[in-house]
Specification:
The chain is an all-alpha fold and about 40 residues long. The protein has one domain. The protein is about 80% helix and about 0% strand. The chain contains three helices and no strands. Helix 2 packs across helix 3. The model has no long low-confidence stretch (mean pLDDT about 95).
């Protein structure tokens, strides 16, 4: 389970770094709440 969370966090962080997306945009793409993305990234 830890590895799955780690992979998800890395994907979200890469997406933000590569696209310059906001936390809100990233949350929409990955279908998580804005708060979840903000907390983990």
């Amino acid at each position: 389970m830890y590895d799955e969370m780690r992979q998800r966090i890395i994907k979200e962080a890469r997406y933000i770094a590569e696209t310059g997306a906001t936390v809100r945009q990233t949350a929409q793409v990955f279908r998580y709440s804005k708060s979840t993305v903000h907390t983990v990234v």
